[in-house]
Amino acid sequence: MEDRINGIHCDVSNCIYNRNSCECVAGKIDVCRCCSDPECSDETECKTFKSRNE
Fold first, then answer.
1. CA 11 to chain CA centroid, nearest Å
2. Helix locations, the chain, DSSP H
3. Which is it for the CA torsion 53, 46, 1, 13, positive or negative?
4. How far apart are CA 27 and CA 23, in angstroms?
5. What confidence score (pLDDT) does residue 15 get?
6. Amino acid 1: pLDDT
């Protein structure tokens, strides 16, 4: 059975946790900032992402 995180929508169609091109079914998600400046939070990255093509 897939987990579901209510309210988390994803438009990355090649992620293995993306169901129906919009719903995240990962058991949890880890998000981090991409820039090294501690004041910067404009860019983030989903560390949970796994490609369907790997």
1. 9
2. none
3. negative
4. 12
5. 93
6. 43
pLDDT value of position 16: 93
What's the pTM?
0.70
Residue 1 neighbours by CB under 8 Å, 6+ apart: none
- For 2-54, the pLDDT digits (tens) are 666 778 888 888 999 998 878 889 888 998 888 877 777 678 889 999 998 86
What's the CA gap between 22 and 34, in Å, rounded? 23
Residues with Cβ < 8 Å from 39, sequence gap 6 or more? none
With vertex at residue 19, the alpha carbon angle to CA 17 and CA 44, rounded to the nearest 5 degrees, is: 50
Distance CA 35, CA 41 (A): 8
Encoded amino acid at 38, one letter = P
